[in-house]
Amino acid sequence: MKTMTKGYEDIINHFYQFDMSEYDNKAAKKLNNELEKENQFLRKELKHLEREFEKLKNTNLKNHSFEVLKASLKNRYLDLTEESIKALSTAEYLFLNEKIEMDYSPIYINYVKVLELEIKNKLNIYDKLTFGGLIEKIGNLYEFKTFVDALTKNRIIEMRNRATHLSDLKKIECGKIRNLLLNEGWLDRLLYILESFNKDEVKEIELNIHILDADGCEFFRNKLYTVYTTLDDRRILSNKNIKLGIFKGKGKEIEHNNLTYILI
Question: Phi, psi (5° rounding) for residue 63?
Answer without folding.
Answer: -85, -20
